[in-house]
């Protein structure tokens, strides 16, 4: 098994490298000069962090792309990064804000200039180059509040509850950080969906909180089942203090869109059990299934009446990185936090102020996202044409991905109702499972490594997101162009069939 | 004392607001619905964080500026934020990278376009809008390595050791996070200068590490005294495990520039005691005293010989936010980490990857900072004229600030050798000290609050940075224009004299 030994060597690169462990030198006084920071003395919480989205597979893919690693067969660099060919308006406004002399140029539409002028007026020194307030630029926070009110059909939004963040991740980590306390059985527990976006599990590890898994129902299009929430909560109560429930809607990596009824159930549950609610709604503009609609947790909470709306603590998160813009490099985002205790709010502002402010260009990009052009503005037609094109293509690719994957024997894919990913279940033959175990890696990791080496396609193994034991998945974005995605799905199908055949032809594993 | 009661009320606003503490509601089942997150259930580490640079004084100044708070006397909004009227080239390159269609415009110099093209080629999808690698864009890391080699007169720099960060703060927090471990007497101790930039103390509180203070020598221009390092280390060893030494050079808030000899002593000490060295060099371009010169810790380490250069673990930090550019809103920065254990390095990359990537526009700005125009390039003359003007004005203001402050009875200011701040010692009369104590605030906080209310000048009290007990200071930036700064210093002088007179005329405090 030459191939396997290669794989095993490669996988271990940088992960179990011991060559410098014994680097000790004698210093002037005859004492040993050891490294002060080794795997033995590293913060154990840092060691515990796992983050598959940028894990070994993606590192390896990057190495391959940069020619640092050779692949054994035909090489096709399809590394699925998030990038959308985005509307002009975002980048026009950011360019204008960055270099305001361009405001005199006739090559920009007037509405881009108006937006840029408004943002600059809110910035210190009228420049993106100054720090902003820690909560973000006031006028951008006001625009966000207006956006939320419109999105939620008039549910009131107070810009004092809006905080600009460095992508959504920054906000999520900040809120979690506030909620972690206690020791032993009173240590804070954080309920997260499984499968989940691994930022949650990474932050929980780093903060030494207790991760409480509630499993999404794969047989029911990854829906959230309220009985499973109760089960997970009751079981966790035995050994920790459940304080927060996190929901990702639309789901990452699972792509489901939650029904209004289900959101009501979650909010009622949070109300009854005194949980803080964190709703990750970064894919709110990415809903493709005609049967589905995005409902914000806030709007549903409002409709449940003041008894709920005035009490349940809810933080919801949005970002510039998804939607139909995909401006992830600017690291823009915001959170809206409802019903926060006033003293705690001052603590939150203090905590956020330690990082001074979120990148101001990301704040500017966020402003355009919540403030798209109106019918009378010059950018309107172009912007909405681009938006329709991006969302239309994503909807088409969501459907195509599901369909093609479901033609492959041993792959079963739920509908991609929203977000940007398919998360199909894959059958891995017992012989392959055993082989992976003997290499000390998870079977879906081995699957994805082989896929990368043999086809250049970079997918993230399901084990990085969490999955029911004995099931295997991968996450795949639907972001390449339709043509490219089709080629890619076909290559994937061929690989999968070959993989199944290869392991079926091997003798049965000994038990 | 009407004034004081106002001050006291204002100070308490948002800091001891108890009005919503009793917000309890009965839920449907007759249970109480309490807030899940209150001061009692907040993460105690978050509560412990202090961050004066954006503390109550700055919050209050912002409220005044936005008309949310009235001031009793003439109002003059001099809130000293960091903003430098910066060179075109930075913002031109960021604008070009943001909106690459501008590359066809004739209104940009060719060298700005070349830089933008090079950066874009290194970016995913040739766009600032995509995530970059977690360590940053490769070609920018390469440019940084070249810059460091030139700065350090040929000391080799490997771009594999360079990590782009979200401002310098992000890098500092990430490195500290790796180094914190152990419990009780083996808990990690972090040596920091006093006075210090409060990011350090805030991060230490948040991570529950042990803060080890070494005091800078105010009587000797805030120099670092190696005997004081030994004293602090030996004392700390009794109750924790000192693992890191942090140095800020040039100093924030103290403005001193470290001599080469002193850096050698620190590095020798770190070598002997097996400490990880963190050198915060964000003000490396801000040296004004003709007698002083910036020496990087790395260069000095190199000159101490391979025994040191190949063993001492050193992380040094730089940023787009200072220097002669002051592009703080872009949140650009980098760190170079030497002699890191290879396995630990993989852990660092993993940790950084959880936040996906630093803002790509900040990375682009960093690239221009390390890659200024060369003599044959069209932007050269303009750029260097601007650079000289900015640094010349800062040097002039550094001197003027020291001189004017030293004419005021009861204020004593060390030379502002570098960085962007004066940190003068102020005499606060015993009666004023007692009054502050009775209000439950530090005397320099009371001083700065009154200064803000009576003159609109916003300074940060020394207690936010740390100071020897019984001494009082404030931090003041030298960033306003020369004319404005002069007016400001005169107003400050008048205030100080009035303040002294007022408290001298009061009866002596009863003891």
TrEMBL record, chains A, B:
Record keywords, A-Z: Aminotransferase, Pyridoxal phosphate, Transferase
Keyword Transmembrane helix: no
Pfam families assigned to the protein according to its UniProt record, in alphabetical order: Aminotran_1_2
Pathways per UniProt: Amino-acid degradation; L-alanine degradation via transaminase pathway; pyruvate from L-alanine: step 1/1
GO molecular function terms listed in the Swiss-Prot or TrEMBL record: L-alanine:2-oxoglutarate aminotransferase activity; pyridoxal phosphate binding
Subunit field text: Homodimer.
Protein name: alanine transaminase
Originating species: Oncorhynchus kisutch
Gene designation per UniProt: GPT2
């Amino acid at each position: 098994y030459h191939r396997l030994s290669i794989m095993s060597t490669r996988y271990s690169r940088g992960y179990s490298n011991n060559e410098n462990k014994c680097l000790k030198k004698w210093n002037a006084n005859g004492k040993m000069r050891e490294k002060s920071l080794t795997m033995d003395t590293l913060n154990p919480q840092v060691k515990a962090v796992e983050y598959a989205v940028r894990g070994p597979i993606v590192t390896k893919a990057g190495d391959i792309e940069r020619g640092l690693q050779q692949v054994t067969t035909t090489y096709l660099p399809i590394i699925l990064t998030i990038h959308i060919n985005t509307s002009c308006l975002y980048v026009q406004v950011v360019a204008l804000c960055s270099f305001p002399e361009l405001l005199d140029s006739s090559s920009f539409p007037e509405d881009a200039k108006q937006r840029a002028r408004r943002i600059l007026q809110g910035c210190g020194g009228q420049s993106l180059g100054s720090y902003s307030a820690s909560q973000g630029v006031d006028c951008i926070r006001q625009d966000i509040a207006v956006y939320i009110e419109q999105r939620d059909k008039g549910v009131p939004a107070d810009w004092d509850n809006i905080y600009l963040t460095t992508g959504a991740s920054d906000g999520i980590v900040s809120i979690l950080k506030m909620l972690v306390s206690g020791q032993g059985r009173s240590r804070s527990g954080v309920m997260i969906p499984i499968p989940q976006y691994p930022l949650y599990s990474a932050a929980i590890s780093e903060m030494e909180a207790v991760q409480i898994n509630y499993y999404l129902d794969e047989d029911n299009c990854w829906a959230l089942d309220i009985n499973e929430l109760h089960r997970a909560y009751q079981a966790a109560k035995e050994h920790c203090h459940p304080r927060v429930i996190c929901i990702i809607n639309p789901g990452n990596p699972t792509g489901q869109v939650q029904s209004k009824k289900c959101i009501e159930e979650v909010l009622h549950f949070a109300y009854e059990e005194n949980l803080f609610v964190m709703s990750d709604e970064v894919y709110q503009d990415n809903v493709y299934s005609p049967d589905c609609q995005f409902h914000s947790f806030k709007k549903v909470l409002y409709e449940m009446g003041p008894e709920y709306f005035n009490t349940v603590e809810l933080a919801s998160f949005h970002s510039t990185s998804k939607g139909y813009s995909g401006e992830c490099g600017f690291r823009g985002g915001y959170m809206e936090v409802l019903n926060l205790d006033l003293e705690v709010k001052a603590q939150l502002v203090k905590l956020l102020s330690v990082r001074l402010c979120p990148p101001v260009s990301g704040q500017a990009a966020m402003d355009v996202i919540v403030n798209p052009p109106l019918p009378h503005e010059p950018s309107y037609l172009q912007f909405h044409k681009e938006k329709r094109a991006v969302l239309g293509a994503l909807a088409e690719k969501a459907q195509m991905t599901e369909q093609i994957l479901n033609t492959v024997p041993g792959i079963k894919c739920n509908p991609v109702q929203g977000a940007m990913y398919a998360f199909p279940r894959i059958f891995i033959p017992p012989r392959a499972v055993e082989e992976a175990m003997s290499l000390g890696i998870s079977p879906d990791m081995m699957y994805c490594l082989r896929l990368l080496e043999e086809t250049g396609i970079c997918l993230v193994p399901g084990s990085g997101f969490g999955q029911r034991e004995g099931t295997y998945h991968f996450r795949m974005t639907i972001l390449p162009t339709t043509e490219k995605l089709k080629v890619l799905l076909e290559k994937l199908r061929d690989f999968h069939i070959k993989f199944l055949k290869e392991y079926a032809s091997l003798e049965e594993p000994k038990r």
